[in-house]
Every structure is written in C-alpha cells, then in structure tokens.
C-alpha cells in the first residue's frame, strides 16, 4: 500500500486520510467538532460527497465534507480567470555596433519604437569586439543617439552600463 502518493497541489481525500482524529467542517462551513476519521468518512458517505483534508498541518488536521470534483473545477476556473487578467511583459532585444551607420541606427530605432508601443520592454545591447574596446566612448555616443530617437515612446530604466564587452540599457514603454 502506498501512503505517500500525494503531490503538492492535490489534497488527500476519503481513504487517503490516515489521521485518528480530525476537526470536521460541514458543507456549509460550520464546525462539527473533533471526530475520528472513520466517523467523518461515514458522514461524508451518507451525504454522498467526499471528505477532503484542507489543512493537513493543523493539530488536529482540518477536514471538510464537500464535492471534490466541483471544488477542483471551481479552482481551475479561478486560475484561468487570474491568468486572463495577467499581462506578460516580454523583453525584446536590439543589438547595435559602435560603427553602425545612421540609417541602420534609425531602422533599429523604428523597430524599438514598434516594440515599445506594443507594451514590451526593450533591451539595447551594444557589443564591442577587439580594438573597439579601446573606444568605449564612441559606443556611448551611439547609445545616446539611439535613446534620443526613442525618447518619446520609451524611458531608460537606468543609465547605460558596461557589462564586460557590452554596453547595456533597458527601456520601458511610457504610459
């Protein structure tokens, strides 16, 4: 017989409850007192519903007489509703180079403006290679130009920051 067959989300029901005494709640939520698990199971069977352990860490554990299938269905509906109300913010990434031409920079900026108007965050990353590492100030000028182009729709969360051989700044959409 397997006693530890529970997952974290699943509540023990009916015969899975192995405690001697439980604090019993009725279907309406009123307390019926502390009874043995067998008596609670008999009461649940008479009502033609399930006995569910809702608080296993309490002393004694709290069990409720309820229709478990209906309970799980309502829980899944509540989760769906909460997921509908959530807005997932995605981070789009735009890569630049220190030697980028003006038209290419404008094209990347237009793309960033499109992302920001959709409500996404934009991570701008300027990568340095080889000898370019000696001219970090040129990369900073390119990033400042980029930020000037997109300043109407996005605001930087912080100043551009060097992370190894990259210059990184994150833009949030303006509300």
TrEMBL record:
Q: Per UniProt, what is one Pfam family of this protein?
A: IF3_C
Residue ranges occupied by any Translation initiation factor 3 C-terminal domain in the UniProt entry? 89-174
Q: Which GO terms describe its molecular function?
A: translation initiation factor activity
Q: Where is the signal peptide?
A: none
List the keywords (alphabetical). Answer: Cytoplasm, Initiation factor, Protein biosynthesis
Top-rank taxon, per record: Bacteria
**Where does the Translation initiation factor 3 N-terminal domain lie?**
13-81
Looking up PROSITE patterns in the UniProt record yields: IF3 (PS00938)
Q: Give the UniProt subcellular location, in the record's own words.
A: Cytoplasm
The record's section on SUPFAM superfamilies has: Translation initiation factor IF3, C-terminal domain, Translation initiation factor IF3, N-terminal domain
Whom does it interact with, and what assembly results?
Answer: Monomer.
Protein family: Belongs to the IF-3 family.
User: Any idea what job this protein has?
Assistant: IF-3 binds to the 30S ribosomal subunit and shifts the equilibrium between 70S ribosomes and their 50S and 30S subunits in favor of the free subunits, thus enhancing the availability of 30S subunits on which protein synthesis initiation begins.
NCBIfam families for this protein: infC
In Swiss-Prot or TrEMBL terms, this protein is called Translation initiation factor IF-3
Species lineage: Bacteria, Bacillati, Bacillota, Clostridia, Peptostreptococcales
Q: Gene encoding it?
A: infC
């Amino acid at each position: 017989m397997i006693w530890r067959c529970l997952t974290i989300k699943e509540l023990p029901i009916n015969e899975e409850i192995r405690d001697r005494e439980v604090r019993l709640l009725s279907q309406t939520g009123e307390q019926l007192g502390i009874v043995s698990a067998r008596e609670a199971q008999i009461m649940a069977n008479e009502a033609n519903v399930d006995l569910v352990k809702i608080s296993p860490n309490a002393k004694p554990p709290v069990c409720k007489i309820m229709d478990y299938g209906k309970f799980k269905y309502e829980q899944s509906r509540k989760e769906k509703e909460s997921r509908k109300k959530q807005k997932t913010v995605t981070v789009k990434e735009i890569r630049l180079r220190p030697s980028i031409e003006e038209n290419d920079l404008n094209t990347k900026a237009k793309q960033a403006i499109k992302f920001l108007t959709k409500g996404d965050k934009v991570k701008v990353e300027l990568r340095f290679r080889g000898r370019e590492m000696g001219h970090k100030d040129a990369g900073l000028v390119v990033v400042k130009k980029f930020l000037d182009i997109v300043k109407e729709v996005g605001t930087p969360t912080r100043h551009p920051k060097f992370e190894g051989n990259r210059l990184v700044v994150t833009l949030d959409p303006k509300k």
